[in-house]
Structures are given as structure tokens and as C-alpha cells.
Amino acid sequence: MKILEGIPVSTGIAIGPACIIERPKLNIERKRIHPDEVALEIRKFHKAITELGEEIDHLIADLSQPQDNRDILTTHKMILQDVEFAANISRLVKNELCGIEEAINRHFTNVVNLFNDMENEYFSLRSSDYEDVAYRLLSKLLNQKSNYFAKLSENSIMITKNITPSEVTRVFNKNIAGFCTEGGSKNSHSSIIARSMNLPTLVDIQDLLQMVNDKDLLIIDGNLGKLIINPDKKTQDHYQKLLAEEKTQLNYLQTLIGKKCVTTDGKVIKLMCNIEIPEEISNVVKLKSDGVGLFRTEFLFMDKNRLPSEDQQFEIYRDIVKQLSPDPVVFRTIDVGGDKLSGLLNIEHELNPNLGTRGIRISLKHIPIFKVQLRAILRASVFGNVKVMFPMISTVGEILRIKEILKECREELKTEKIPFKSDIKIGAMIEIPSAAITSDNLAQECDFLSIGTNDLVQYTLAVDRDNELVDEYYIPHHPSVLRLLKLTADNGYKYNVPVAICGEMASEEKYIPFLLGLGINEFSVSPGRLLMVKNTIMKCNYQKAVAKTNQILKENTYIDVMKRIEEFRL
Ligand code: PEP
Ligand code: MG
Fold it and tell me: I need a surface site. Which of 27, 112, 239, 552 has the fewest CB within 10 A?
């Protein structure tokens, strides 16, 4: 028995025989063509685009595929239809007299490298889509058959070096038990689809292909991030039991869809979703949540050669709002470190990006860009229930400035006779200690507050949330953090302003009773955690939670806090 570690992207347990899948290598010849052959090469290219487009349409029309898969295929279709992409490749063939395969390969390699260089997880998400489209186009042009999944059998565990999003959609009907990859990241499109398919999945497993042989018995523990190869009898029995329990629990959680989220003593809690990309909306709708409590709009900006226009943003926002109406959608204006948008915004490299031009600071430094986003959000407000909130607020002066800018946007739209709702609710994110400490002032200037614990923990404890070397210092239940949460909740109550929580703390089972006990009655969590959170809330008694929270708040060390939390666990 051997145990390997990986990053779990989709929780759950899978048991089955290994099936190693290798994607055939593409042999791209470097050839020089005669100028007379340029037209022929370009014709070949357009034919391949049309054929691949038809194949994708066919898959999109397959209603047995989950909506997420079809949305991602639609993204692939858009990559194919992008005029700039076709023009670039044709130009390469004309100017450099290279074969069409080489031109496609060079173009996509450049795009993918560009995304990867930006060192942002979201770009690897996009780059895998581009790699995927490139591979499929090239295998078509090289007449390479792509039935390398034929050997996958039902209930097997697929093992690959990497997997592209369209490959995940192709294994959808194979009823495999789960899959593992040597590369990959938690938030790649492939991982998102795996999650939506509820397939236990581990990525980034070192030496995976050297350690596993075809037909080895495997266990994926998607909760602990472990891959067990040829488990002994005791381990097998243990996991068979866990698997059975998990199935029962999953079936039970599904029965909560559509039920009101209410504590045992009748307190109604709003339970909403955090989303990053529009493709996730179908999940939100399926889960019948109370809306979107955090739409991280920056993801729309990060894979572009140029900033999305007001119309482009408006159309995306409008579609989301329409699908969820009358439930609210809270748009969070762009929140990234300046380095992430440096290509688009011409921002200098900063030594401490997390303490630099980030979040609202970028928007206030680039007001025309901010106004484009605000106008798009205002325009979308006509189609449903729109709210807007601002990240990285550190002082009430920022809210006052934002209100002036919003006013200008409204006046412009009015003059241009473009419809919008004049009373959309505005909120401040509480994710910096200074914001929590002055939440009384912020509450008086805002319609709602939303606590982003991911950053609040980072900034309160001076610990980089993305640096695993200081992981042990990242302690959400540190008394300092809990006291800031309490202060914010109390100020919200005092000024009659709703306080929501949208950081990851809201979806950690152990913290939920404490948060409820603070009086927070809006939780926004990732769609994959929503039913678990609902289940936990529905088992809580609000009055008891208040009493427990007050006791927890009296503790002076995070160790004692944890003892209390464990004691009170339901
Ligand atoms: C947070 O900081 O808790 C939050 C929700 O925002 P993000 O994770 O996008 O920084
Ligand atoms: Mg944040």
C-alpha cells in the first residue's frame, strides 16, 4: 500500500481500478510553404474550425450534459469564433510562410504562456481552455483520432498527466468513479466541471504516473487529499464504510434543496452563493439559494487583452441578474492586486501587492474604468435585484468618494436616457481591521456590510493568505478576529444595517454556530458547500448559539477558543 498526496478539488471518496490515459502526442512538422500555398493552408484552417464548431454544437445540444459543461463548451466555441484569433493565425501563415499547424501551435503557445506568466490561478483556468481548443484543432488537421478514452470502464479511476475541460466533458458519460492528475490546479475549468459532476478528484499529485500502474486498486480520499494505491484489507473496509455513509449523507443533503434555511427555533437565515464566473449561475439556480452574495467581478477582467467595454459587462451582468430575479445579485467591483491587471492598467510592480494598490484603491485611481463598471451594474439593475459592494475599504472617506462617482454615473445615464434603478443598495466589505473598527461609521453610510474573513484574517494577523509557509499563523478563530467580527455585527445591528459574511469561514462547519450567535443572518458560500452549510444551520438553535458565542468571546487564546468551539459542536 502506498499513499500519495494531492490537492482535492472535489470532495468525496472513490474506490476503483486505475485506468491510465495518455493523450497521443501531436507531431507538428516545421515546413516552409510556397506563397501560392497560403490560400490552401488558410482554407484547411477554416474547414477545421467549421468542423470543430459543429462538433462542439453537437455536444452543447446534448441535454444530458450538465449545464456547466455546456457553458464551458460555449466558451470554447467563442475562442474559435474570435476574429482576432483567425486573423492572427492567417497572418502568421502569410508573413512567415509556415504550415497552418505550426501557425496554430505558435499562436496558442503564445497565448497560453502569456496567461501562465501572469502567475494567477484564474489564468491557468483560461489557458487550459486555449490548450484544449488548440489540441482539438490540431488533431483534426493532423488527422489524429481522439478516441483515447475508449479504454475507460465504468467505476474506474482515471489517471492522467493533465486533463483539459473538454476531455472532462467527454468522460462525463463513462460513469467513472473519480480521477487524478499529475498537474492541474484547484480552480481550473477542468476542476470546476469535476466539481459540478460531483466526481472525487485530486490534482497536482507528484510522480503520479510513475507510482500507479493500470488496474491497481485505488482509493481517492477527496476530503483529505490522499490517493491510496493498493490499500490493505483494513483500509479498504474503512473506506467502503465511509463511501456508504457519504452516499446516504449526499442523498439527504439533496432533500434540503428548496427548503427554507431556518434554525430549530425559527430564525430565518439567508443563504447565498459566491461565484467567480457566469458559468456558475446554473448551479446557483439548481440549488435554489437566496441569490448571489458575492460575484467576484474581477474574473471577467483577468483574461482579456483589453478591458471589457461597458456593453460587454452590462450584457454579462444583465444575464446573471435576469436568471436570478427576484433574488439579489451582489456585484463586488474589481478586487485584484495591481500586478494582476498591470498589463491592462499600466500599473507599476509593487513590493507588497497585498498592501498596495489593490481592490477599491485601483478603482479610485482609475476612475474612468471604475465608472464603466458602475454604469454597467446600474444598467443591469433594471432587470432584477442588483446590489453593489466595494472591496478593501479601509476608511469611510472611500465610501463618500464612491457615492460621488455613483452620482455622476447616474446623472450621465439620465442625460443619455439610459434606464437604471436609482436606489440600488451599496455595501462595504469589511476585510481590513480599520474597516471593522470603524464599522459604525461605515454602517451609517452604507445599506449593508459584508465581512470578507479571508482578508480580515490575513490583515488582522499579518499573515499572507497564499503563503503555505506561514499557514500555521492563519487562524480564523484568533480572539482578535472574533472580536472584530463581533464589533461589526453589533454596529450593523445598532444602525439597522444587515451584516453578511462571505469569506470561507462561513462555510466551515465548526464556525457556523458562532457566526449565527453573533446575529449574522446572511451567509454567502461557494455553491459546492451550500447544502452542507444549510444542514448545519438548520440543526442550530439560535438562542443557544448566542449564549455559546458570548462564552467563546470571553476566551483569551485561540487554543481556548477552539476548545470551546469543539465543546459546542453540534
Ligand atoms: C474575503 O476576503 O473574505 C473575500 C470574500 O474576498 P476574496 O476572497 O475575493 O478576497
Ligand atoms: Mg477579500
Answer: 27
Alpha carbons within 13 angstroms on the beta-carbon side of residue 441 total 13
First to last CA, the chain: 35
Q: Which of 76, 189, 477, 478 is catalytic?
A: 189
Architecture of domain 2-24+147-253: 3-Layer(bba) Sandwich (3.50)
pLDDT tens for residues 6-22? 988 888 899 999 999 98
CATH ID of 35-141, from 3.40.50.2000, 1.20.1260.10, 1.10.274.10, 3.90.25.10:
1.10.274.10
The x, y and z cell numbers of residue 306, run together, are 483589453
pTM of the predicted structure, to 2 decimals: 0.72
Whether the CB-CB separation of 348 and 341 falls below 8 Å is answered with no
> Is the distance from CB of 180 to CB of 203 less than 8 angstroms?
yes
Q: How far apart are CA 430 and CA 452, in angstroms?
A: 6
Question: Which residues lie with the beta carbon below 6 Å from any ligand 1 atom?
Answer: 294, 296, 335, 431, 452-455, 502-503
Cell 455622476 sits on residue = 408
Residue numbers of the chain with a pLDDT score lower than 70? 63-68, 116-125, 146, 187, 189, 192, 196, 302-305, 337-347, 468, 569-570
C-alpha cell at 255: 432533500
- Residue 348: CB atoms within 10 A of its CB come to 9
Catalytic (active site) residue 366: no
Could you give the strand order of the β-sheet that contains 2-5, starting from the edge strand earlier in sequence? 2-5, 226-229, 217-221, 13-20, 157-160, 178-181, 201-203, 7-10
Label the pairing between strands 217-221 and 201-203: unpaired
What distance in Å separates the CA atoms of residue 502 and residue 168, rounded to the nearest whole number?
30
Map residue 503 onto helix, strand or coil.
coil
Which helix or strand (DSSP H or E) is residue 403 part of? helix 396-415
What is the CB neighbour count within 10 angstroms for residue 569? Answer: 12
Using alpha carbons, select from 80, 84, 89 the residue that is nearest to residue 60.
80
Q: For residue 381, what is the DSSP state?
A: G
Closest approach atom of ligand 1 to CA 431: 2
Q: Which residues pair with 181 in a beta bridge?
A: 160
Give the tens place of pLDDT for each residue, 536-553: 999 999 999 999 999 999
Q: Which CATH architecture has domain 255-566?
A: Alpha-Beta Barrel (3.20)
